[in-house]
Amino acid sequence: MTDKSMTPEEVVGQLHSGMTVGIGGWGSRRKPMALVRALLRSEITDLTVISYGGPDVGLLAAAGRIRRLVAPFATLDSIPLEPHFRAARERAAFTLTELDEAMFMWGLHAAANRLPFLPVRAGLGSDVMRVNPELRTVLSPYDDGEELVAVPALRMDAALVHLNRADRLGNAQYLGPDPYFDDLFCEAADAAYVSCEQLVETAELTKSGPPQSLLVSRHSVTGVVETPNGAHFTSCVPDYDRDEAFQKLYAATPWDEFSARFLSGAGEHDYQLAVRTWHEEQQ
Amino acid sequence: MTTTDATPTAPRAVSRAEYCVIACAEAWRDNGEVLASPMGLVPSFGARLAKRTFSPDLLLTDGEAMLVGLDGTAEGWLPYRRHLTMVTGGRRHVMMGASQIDRFGNQNISCIGDWERPARQLLGVRGAPVNTLNNPVSYWVPKHSKRVFVERVDMVSGVGYDRAEAAGVTRFHRLPRVVSDLGVFDFAGPGHSMRLASLHPGVTVEDVLAATGFEPAITGEVPYTREPTAGELRLIREVIDPQGLRDREVRV
C-alpha cells in the first residue's frame, strides 16, 4: 500500500497560488501550524481560506496570503480577538465570507457528501444574508413549507489538518476530547494533508486509543507529515496545551518583528529552535 | 450560622455583582433538562447557582467537550459538532455577550462600523445566527452603556424580534431576557421591544435611561431584582465563587 509520508515542504509543493485551502482545528486548538508555517515560507498567495479561524488565519492574513476568507470567527480563545485578523479586516485586506458556525458545518457536510448545498435553520433574519448576497434559500417541499438557508458546499482544493497520531497510509487519530471537524475537512477536499505529532505503525493506533478515535481514514488523505509540536502554539491535547506565553508574545509583537525572529528560518526545525531559545530567555 | 460566635459580625451587604448572579440564574428557572450555556463569569456563576438550587436538571459543560456535574464529574460528551446539534435541537438556553444590542434584541458581536471595512473588527458572528433561530438566547452585558444599548446595531449577528418576524423565522425564536449591571430587561414592550423588567437595588430608572441609547419600555413602578436568600448568598460567596471573581466583571 502507498506510503504517503512527506515533508511540510513537499505538501506545500503540491499547492499553488489561487487555491481554496481548508484548515482544520478550531480557534487556537489543534491547528496544523507547521503546515501553515511551511505555506508562509513559500511564495503561495491569493488563497481562499476556509477555517474556524485561529492564528492560522492571523498568520496568513498578516503575511498577505489571503484573497478571500470563509469563516464564522477568528479567535485565539484565551485571547478573544485575533489581532492580525482584526488588523487585516480593518484595512480591508481580503474579502470575507462571514458565515454562522452551523452554516459553516453544514457547508462542510455538503461538500463531504458531494451535495450542492444543505438546508439549515440559521442565517435568516441576520446580516449574514446581507453581507453574503449570493446566499440562496429553499422552501421545504413538505407540508411545513419552511424557508431555510441553502448553505453551499464548502468544497476545497486542499485541506490541512493536524492530529495526534497517524500511520504512513494516512489513517489518523485524535486523542483529545474534540474531533473538531477535521474528518469533514479531509472529505470535503480534493487533496488532504494530515500532519501529526507522531507517525506510528498501524497496529499502534488501536493501542493508544479506542476505535472511535480513528477520525480520519486513508481514503480521504493524500499526504501524511510527522511534525512533532506541529500545532504549536495552539493546543494539541493530550500531547500539549496551548503555549499561552508564546501566544501572548505573538499577539503583542509587531508582525515584522515576530516574523523576522520566528518565521524567517529555512524550515520548521528553525522555528522550533527559535521558540525554545525564546523560552530559555524567559527563565 | 453557628450559635457559638462570641462576636457576630454584621452581614455583608449584597453586592451588585451578586444581584447580577441572581438575575442570570433566574434566566434558567423552569428550563428543565436543557444545556445551560453561559458566556462570561457572572452567567457561569448564575447557571451554577440555578443548578444547585431551583433548576437541578440543567446540563453544564466544562467549557471544552464534556458535559459535567457541579463537582466536575463527566456525564456526557459534547464536542462542537454535537453542541451544534443541541442548538438546533433546541435543548439549550444560551446566555451570550453583546457588543451592541438594540431595542428588539438584535445583537452584534461581529464588528463595529461598516462591515466592508470595519472600524473595529470583533469576533465574527460565531453561532449567534443559529442560536437565535433555534434555542432560547439571553444576553449578559457587564457594563451597561450607550455604546452597547444602541438604536441600531452595525451587524445583526443574533436575530431580534422584529427581524425574526420580518423573516418569518419565529417558530423557535425566543429571547427571554437581557441582564446588565443595571437591571434586567425582557421583551414585553410594544411589538416585542425591550422593557425594563427590574432594577438592581441602588440603580434608578434615570440611571438606566442615561446609559441606554434608546428608550426601553417602562410599565408602572419598576420592581427591584429580587434579593438572594441567605442560602443562595452563602453558595455564591463560599462555594461557587469564593475568590470573588464576580466583582472583577461587575465593578460597581
UniProtKB/TrEMBL annotation, chain A:
- Tell me which domain of life the UniProt entry assigns to the organism this sequence originates from: Bacteria
Gene Ontology MF terms? CoA-transferase activity
Q: Which InterPro entries match?
A: CoA_trans_fam_I, NagB/RpiA_transferase-like
UniProt keyword terms in alphabetical order: Transferase
Q: Which SUPFAM superfamilies match?
A: NagB/RpiA/CoA transferase-like (SSF100950)
List the protein's name: Acyl CoA--acetate/3-ketoacid CoA transferase subunit alpha
- The record lists the organism as Streptomyces venezuelae
Automatic annotation (TrEMBL), chain B:
Q: Which UniProt keywords apply?
A: Transferase
| Coiled coil residues, start to end | none
Which Gene Ontology molecular function entries are recorded, alphabetically? CoA-transferase activity
| Pfam assignment, any one | CoA_trans
Q: Is the keyword Transferase assigned to this protein?
A: yes
Specify whether Endoplasmic reticulum is a keyword of the entry.
Answer: no
InterPro entries given in the database record: CoA_trans_fam_I, NagB/RpiA_transferase-like
Per the record, the similarity remark reads:
Belongs to the 3-oxoacid CoA-transferase subunit B family.
What name does UniProt use for this protein? CoA-transferase
Organism field: Streptomyces venezuelae
